[in-house]
Amino acid sequence: DAGVTQSPTHLIKTRGQQVTLRCSPKSGHDTVSWYQQALGQGPQFIFQYYEEEERQRGNFPDRFSGHQFPNYSSELNVNALLLGDSALYLCASHRVGSYNEQFFGPGTRLTVL
Amino acid sequence: AQSVTQLGSHVSVSEGALVLLRCNYSSSVPPYLFWYVQYPNQGLQLLLKYTSAATLVKGINGFEAEFKKSETSFHLTKPSAHMSDAAEYFCAVSDAGGTSYGKLTFGQGTILTVHP
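^ inputs. structure came back:
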């Protein structure tokens, strides 16, 4: 059983560019959450998708947007990249009713130059 | 709103010694509590979870944690540290139901170093 997968593993962009990160949830999971982990910090909640809709959002600007597809996979888009967007982006999935036990992917390391 | 405080950003122990990583939480509703471990350049792996059943929770790799409502704590322990336990550990909280939909709020993390 494959766990949560993310692509790409690493990405280098320049300020002002746009980026798309991808996530496939663990088999049987229907909810995908995205977190940003800056260097030396704990993960911060960006948003969560369920039934192809954004269900909850953290304190992130509108430059951060997402999408969930019918197969439950998800994308995170970041527009107008800033240096401060450099971080590890983690995708997590869980199944509704599973005590919110979230399984995390390996992350995508984004570097903005 | 929920929050997590992990006391001690760095903890150092000798191999074979007791590991104690401290976590205090704040939540206006009954919480679910989690401990995750992160090895360098990797994602987070769930060690254990509290979901309002037994207050003493056993997890993987010999770790356990005790939920103490009166102290709003959920400290992580392991009787005997192994070199392979060296990693960063995160405590997290979510609402038990309600409208959080499973959003996790994390602490700042504690880096565990194990000396031979």
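The CA atoms of residues 22 and 98 of chain B lie 26 Å apart. The two ends of chain B are 41 Å apart (CA to CA).
thumbs up if we can close this ticket
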